[in-house]
Amino acid sequence: MKCAICQHGPTEIGATTVIFEHEDTTLVFKQVPAESCINCGEEYISAEVNSTLLSVAGAELNKGVTVEILRYAA
Hints:
Blueprint: E1 11-22, E2 25-37, E3 43-44, H1 47-63, E4 67-71
Parallel strand pairs: 2-4
Antiparallel strand pairs: 1-2, 2-3
């Protein structure tokens, strides 16, 4: 995939950290599958991964956590 931001770099498959903040809650997801531009560093996650993150984030918010660090699991 070619980077949509810099228009120059190809992307490579890897992993990233995603942070969600909502009111007083912070959720940190480690080892999230992503593609990163080798030129500018822009990161992309798929719609499927995004859906999984949002689902897990919603469940964690319902638990009432303030800060949570989670390893991504599909």
